[in-house]
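are you around this afternoon, could really use another pair of eyes. what follows is a protein written twice so to speak, once as letters and once as structure tokens for the fold. i want to understand how the tokens follow from the sequence so walk me through it. anything you notice is useful, everything is just below.
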Amino acid sequence: MTSADHDACVADLKRCIALSDNMAVLDAGSGTGALCLALVRIAGLRITALEPCSAMNALLELRPELRCVTTVQGFCDHADDRQHFDAESFDLIASRQLANCLFDPLAAFRNWYSWLRPGGAVVVMDGLFDRHDWSGTWDGVVDTLPLSACRTTATVPYLLENTGFRIDFVGLMDHTNALPSTRTQRYMVAATKPQG
């Protein structure tokens, strides 16, 4: 990804969420650090990356600009994954291109709810994928992942709301979608864990 990709992601994030100094942020499903590379552009964030694949964690840790990011190896979409973090550990949980790969999105969203402080926010960024987008190595996976081919922005907010979140924003990622590198329309959902 280019610098323009990261700048567009930050611009899209700032449309729907307030980012402030010293926020504890979790990048859920961080991969090799694409979202982290956008987040480090915002001064003062304390970023943790959660990723199940040790090889991807290793690649993230090799990036000099991500030395400030703490990495944790693990999944987030099973009840047992809640043990990765204490309750109310984060002010913001963000994911990019993860929701479509969750085996159990409700379990993930319940874990995220637990890990967020009251008043904390979650931001889900994903693509509006079709069945044919899951080909090659991914062939057949489309029928095992509930959010893999959702051509609607309605499903993720519905699931978040059913796990206790208040929906604050649902819309297309205008800055990201304007880039020539974006082949599949991207959308984002921002939600808040209510106070008390």
Observations:
- The chain has a mean pLDDT of 96.
